[in-house]
Each structure stands twice: as C-alpha cells, then as structure tokens.
Design brief:
By secondary structure, the protein is α+β, with helices and mostly antiparallel strands. Helices cover 55% and strands 15% of the residues. Strand 1 and strand 2 form a beta hairpin. The protein has a three-stranded antiparallel sheet, with no helix packed on it. Strands 3-4-5 form a three-stranded antiparallel sheet, with no helix packed on it. It folds into three domains: 63 residues, no CATH class; 39 residues, no CATH class; 95 residues, no CATH class. It is built from seven helices and six strands, in the order αααααββββββαα. It is flat, with a radius of gyration of 24 Å. Keywords: Membrane, Transmembrane, Transmembrane helix. Pfam families: DUF502 (PF04367).
Length: 227
C-alpha cells in the first residue's frame, strides 16, 4: 500500500499535470491548425503557387515571392470591400445572379457557401433563419441531439414531413452527418451558431441552455417586443 508521502507527491504531480494539460492541448490545436493551413495555403500548395506568381515580378526568392503575393492579395481585397460597401453592391449581386448562380452545380455550391458566410458575418439579407441550431428529440421524447437545420422546408417521404438536420462532429465541427428526421422531432434550440460551435469544440463541457427555459425566454422576449 503506498505510503503517505508517496500519495502526497503523486497528488501534487497530478495537480501540476492537470494545470499544464489545457495549455498543451491549446498549443497542440494551434500547431495542428497551422499545419493544416500550411498544407493547403503554404508555398508548396496550389494557392501558394498563385500567391508566389503574384509576387514574382517584385522578388526572386521563393519565400519572398510568397510573402509579397500575400501582401498584394491583402491590398487587392481592400478595394473590393470598398465596392461591396458602396452602391455598386447590388450590381455585383446582379452579376453573380446572372453568372455563378445559374451554373447548375457551381450555383448550388455558391449558394450554400454564401449562406454559411452570411451566418458568420450576420449581414443584411442573410438567410439566418434557414440555418439555425435545433434540438432533435428521437422518437419525440428519446435521445436529444444538438444539430443544425439547413432548410426549414420539409421533405415528404411516404406522405410524412421530414426535416434535414446536420449533426456536427466533436471537437472539430466541420464535418458530420446529414439526417432526415420527422418534423415533430425537431425543436428550436434558441441559441446561435457560435454557441453551437463552442459546445461541440468543448466536447460538451460548455453546456447548452435548458430547452424549456430558452423557449420561455424567447416567448417572453417576443411578447415584450409586441408591447
């Protein structure tokens, strides 16, 4: 049986390990993210080759070309932001509607990407209500899953309305599964997409609000606004 000094030493060592672990996990996640970005955006990637091509007229060293390409891209994005914020925005949207949105496959992908960016930016006209977090209660009162509702329009299967839900993966909620569940199983979660993401990233440590309390709070807010 371990002696008292050994148990005290072990408890102290474990306390130090638990204090260090969040920092180690944070650094590990940052390193993994950096490696992922370097793989897809670094000098050896397709995007990196394009950035190096932009900087090639001003430098002759590979990494210097890449750095100048990034700088030029950042400078080119600013005038685009000025155009988007000006009255030319509706003309740009009209041009996109006449070109990208009319291409069968590319148009669908662009619409989906535009809706996701609209959620992050919360810009005017973004279809936020169509991309909302929801609770899915299996069998109506069974296991609860916190998911994302991409489209509020139901799909009828054998005469019964079903809704499509996206169930993210933890702790990196950029993948997941697409499920079609009966409409009566779905309840509004009354939280934002950022809260849903933080719950999945924390692997459930960041708990969601109580469903009934959130519904009552939303009803109270609507009643107050009506007055």
């Amino acid at each position: 049986m371990p002696s008292q000094p050994f148990r005290r030493l072990s408890a102290t060592w474990l306390a130090g390990l638990l204090a260090l672990l969040p920092l180690v996990l944070t650094v590990g996640l940052l390193v993994w993210t950096g490696q992922l970005l370097y793989h897809y955006l670094g000098p050896g990637s397709v995007v990196g080759s394009l950035l190096s091509w932009l900087g090639q007229p001003f430098a002759r060293q590979p990494y210097l070309e890449y750095g100048l390409g990034i700088l030029l891209l950042l400078l080119l994005i600013y005038p685009l932001g000025v155009l988007v914020q000006s009255s030319l925005r509706r003309h740009i949207d009209a041009l996109i509607d006449l070109t990208l949105r009319r291409i069968p496959l590319i148009g669908s992908l662009y619409n989906l990407a535009d809706r996701f960016v609209g959620l992050l930016d919360q810009k005017d006209g973004a279809d936020i209500t169509a991309m909302s977090p929801v609770w899915c209660l299996f069998s109506g009162d069974g296991a609860a899953v916190l998911a994302l509702l991409p489209n509020p329009e139901p799909v009828h299967i054998d005469g019964r309305p079903y809704l499509a839900i996206l169930v993210p993966t933890a702790p990196v909620p950029i993948g997941g599964g697409l499920l079609y569940v009966p409409s009566e199983w779905v309840r509004p979660a009354q939280i934002g997409v950022d809260k849903l993401s933080s719950i999945y990233v924390s692997m459930g440590i960041d708990a969601p609000p109580d469903l009934q309390a959130a519904v009552k709070q939303a009803q109270t807010s609507r009643a107050t606004s009506a007055l």
